[in-house]
Design goal:
Length: 206
């Protein structure tokens, strides 16, 4: 009976020891898992912190360039709008120049046309030159008329006549410059010098 009781106690002790060993192994496994999880959590935390820092740097760079770019674009648009504003004097000058060039181009075409006689060409030149130079002569005649009336009436007419004479002279010079410019362009001279203007003037008065 004593042997049976001792054998039963030994079996129970071995079973208890086995269960205790299994429990210790489970505890150790749980500890290892917790250690690994802590290490992973630390790595994840570092990655999250690094990612946040990168995002902050990127956002600051974006804000910096977004703050600079619109002002540059706005200034460029402002300059473009300024450049597009038409100059009324330049537009009027271009229209007058185009008309004068068209008239002289027509004269050159008629000069090269064999079907137009010399007499017809001379009459054509007189008509076109008369049309172009009519304005300065009309202003001069008006000024002379006012000047003649000014001696009999008052000095106001005299000053008006002098002003009209100055306007007539400026108009004549303007037309002469356009004629010389057309002659130089037709001869392939786009950056003329003083002697080029002299030679062009000689060609025009022939």
């Amino acid at each position: 009976m004593k042997e049976k009781a001792l054998s039963a106690r030994t079996t129970i002790a071995l079973e208890y020891q086995k269960r205790l060993h299994e429990a210790v192994e489970k505890i150790n496994m749980v500890k290892e898992k917790l250690k690994k999880q802590k290490i992973m959590n630390a790595e994840v935390f570092k990655m999250v912190v690094h990612q946040k820092a990168s995002e902050e740097i990127r956002d600051s760079i974006k804000r910096k360039y977004n703050a600079v770019e619109p002002s540059a674009l706005d200034s460029m648009k402002h300059i473009t709008k300024k450049e597009k504003v038409p100059n009324p004097v330049g537009v009027k000058d271009s229209k007058i120049e185009r008309k004068i060039f068209k008239a002289y181009c027509h004269i050159d075409e008629c000069e090269r046309n064999p079907r137009i006689s010399k007499k017809q060409f001379t009459l054509l030149k007189i008509r076109i030159y008369g049309t172009i130079l009519a304005l300065p002569f009309v202003i001069v005649l008006t000024a002379l008329g006012l000047c003649a009336a000014g001696f009999a009436l008052s000095e106001t007419y005299h000053f008006c006549s002098l002003g009209l004479c100055a306007v007539s002279f400026i108009t004549f010079l303007y037309i002469l410059v356009k004629v010389l410019k057309y002659d130089l362009r037709s001869n392939g001279i786009y950056k003329p010098r003083f002697m080029d203007y002299v030679r062009s003037f000689r060609r025009c008065i022939k």
